[in-house]
Design a protein that fits this description.
9% strand, 3-stranded antiparallel sheet, alpha+beta, 4-stranded antiparallel sheet, rod-shaped, Alpha-Beta Plaits, 7 strands
Length: 438
């Protein structure tokens, strides 16, 4: 309740001040009129004598190769700002005097990153438009070599792929087909020939050898054994019996001679001695012959016949088995191996080459797809230089100076300055009076 009087006093004082301010403004309204009028008049004179400038705007889409821009928008904007001195008013004035137009600003677009906004002013639309086109041409010439190099590289790559495709069609695939033909006409027939040789020559030779062993060699050895058993041993026995009989006869004759030694005279004894010596030599010779025959008999029984029997066994168990093994090896190993090799050639080598041919054909398809992609890459849909999109935006009336805006701003500015000047004068006079009264 105690604060209400104070609040009323403050309100009353504010109202008194506001009224005094209004009275002050009213009392010194001529100053306000003069200052505001003077500033507004100056603005009118400025806009009347200021050279009118026409504005041309253009949205420059930065060139691209696929999804990649030729240059970063920010870098390009800074480059153009540097080249055309957009931040140098003196240069703009000189450029306007020299060519009748200048580039005022090159701005990036925050919403669309691949666009630059170009603002150009000129004494007329034609000159401003020419300056804008000059800038666009500068950008296009600056990055056209990059596009040309990309197109050249892409065309070279297309030609390389076409040559590769031609080599595959005219060299690689025909060579692979020739390899298949060589395998079918030479390699497989060679294996068939080997199989036929095994069947008609090697196998027949082995069968003949086996037959020779069975029908010739073994019977020959058996005949030898039979010869030794039936004839040779019997012959030796007969000879031994004959020589033994002779030996008995010689021994009897020698005994008879011994009996005559005591009955005969010296002459007969001498003759008997000579005969005895002859008989003894005959006996010794017969004994040696009988011994030799017995040794020969033993050798035949214990060596020759067993050796021949061993030879038969060796032929049966070694030579014949070896031949049979060779025959079995040909029938069950070599020929099946060759058949498998032939099948392997058909299923592996020929199939492998056929797979390579298929791979080469797939490669041709891939090359065709790559060529299509590369052709698309250098098509206008995928590669373009920088260009203006949406056309050049011009106006029929000058964009600078903005007369109405300048006059309105000058009027408001003059009004504010005049009011400030009135208050300043009022403050000065009040201070002066206080000093005089003091």
């Amino acid at each position: 309740m105690q604060q209400q009087p104070n609040q009323q006093v403050c309100v009353e004082e504010d109202e008194i001040d506001l009224i005094e301010l209004l009275h002050t403004l009213k009392r010194r309204r001529k100053i306000i009129y003069k200052v505001t009028g003077a500033i507004t008049l100056l603005a009118i004179v400025y806009v009347l004598f200021k050279t009118p400038l026409y504005e041309v705007k253009a949205n420059l889409r930065i060139g691209f190769i696929g999804e990649k821009l030729l240059v970063d928008p920010t870098i390009l904007a800074k480059t153009l700002q540097s080249v055309y001195h957009t931040d140098e008013p003196d240069f703009k004035s000189k450029e306007l005097n020299a060519s009748g137009a200048y580039v005022d600003a090159v701005n990036t677009n925050r919403k669309v990153k691949n666009f630059l906004e170009i603002i150009t002013y000129g004494l007329d639309n034609d000159r401003a438009l020419a300056k804008t086109k000059e800038l666009v041409s500068y950008v296009q010439k600056e990055y056209q070599p990059k596009l040309d190099q990309y197109i050249l590289n892409t065309k070279n790559e297309i030609e390389r792929l076409k040559i590769q495709k031609k080599n595959i069609l005219e060299i690689t695939i025909p060579n692979l087909k020739t390899q298949i033909k060589l395998i079918e006409d030479m390699k497989i027939p060679q294996i068939d020939k080997k199989i036929e040789l095994l069947k008609t020559q090697d196998l027949e030779k082995l069968k003949i050898q086996l037959s020779i062993l069975e029908k010739q060699k073994i019977p020959e050895i058996k005949k030898k054994i039979e010869f030794y058993e039936k004839y040779k041993i019997k012959d030796i026995k007969d000879k031994i019996a004959f020589y033994s009989q002779k030996l008995k006869e010689y021994n009897k004759a020698v005994q008879a001679l011994y009996e005559q030694f005591n009955k005969s005279d010296d002459t007969k004894v001498m003759i008997a001695s000579i005969q005895m010596v002859n008989y003894q030599n005959l006996i010794l010779d017969l004994q040696n012959k009988i011994k030799d025959l017995q040794l020969e008999k033993i050798k035949i029984i214990e060596e020759i016949i067993p050796q021949l029997e061993d030879k038969i066994e060796n032929i049966k168990n070694v030579d014949m088995k070896k031949i049979k093994y060779q025959i079995d090896n040909i029938l069950n190993v070599k020929i099946p191996q060759l058949e498998k090799e032939k099948e392997k050639i058909r299923l592996a080598e020929i199939k492998k080459i056929q797979d390579r041919i298929l791979a080469q054909k797939n490669q041709i398809t891939q090359i065709n797809n790559k060529i299509k992609v590369l052709k698309y890459n250098i098509s206008p849909a995928n590669i373009q230089n920088s260009k203006v999109v949406g056309g050049f935006i011009t106006k029929d009336h000058p964009a600078k100076p903005k007369r109405k805006l300048i006059v309105v701003v000058a009027f408001i500015t003059g009004l504010i300055l005049s009011i400030f000047l009135v208050f300043l004068i009022e403050f000065w006079e009040e201070n002066k009076k206080r000093l005089e009264e003091a």
